[in-house]
Specification:
Layout lengths: L2 H12 L8 H24 L1 E5 L5 E5 L7 H19 L8
Antiparallel strand pairs: 1-2
Length: 96
């Protein structure tokens, strides 16, 4: 694959139109994607639990999964937030 084809594929992935396929636009999109990836990684780490298996090895578990498609990920996130809210508020909306 030649560099022009690679740049076109990258721009297509980010939805960058042909009129604005400049180095600064491409880099801004890559930097934004990297920053958002770090944000999601930290959110997942925050909601992860480290458990020990029968062999004594530590396993990190998280209900949020990178392998999900975006809609599955959002649904899992909504479920997680609902569970957290239920754990921090009573039925009458008062904090417990």
């Amino acid at each position: 694959m030649d560099p022009t084809e690679l740049i076109d594929q990258i721009c297509d992935i980010f939805g960058i139109g042909s009129a604005v396929r400049t180095p600064s636009t491409i880099l801004a999109n890559v930097q934004n994607a990297a920053r958002r990836s770090l944000c999601l990684n930290e959110i997942e780490a925050y909601h992860s639990v480290v458990e020990t298996d029968e062999d004594g090895d530590e396993i990190e578990e998280c209900v949020l999964m990178w392998g999900d498609d975006p809609w599955q990920y959002i649904e899992r996130y909504k479920e997680l937030m609902s569970t957290l809210q239920q754990n921090t508020t009573g039925r009458g909306g008062e904090e417990t």
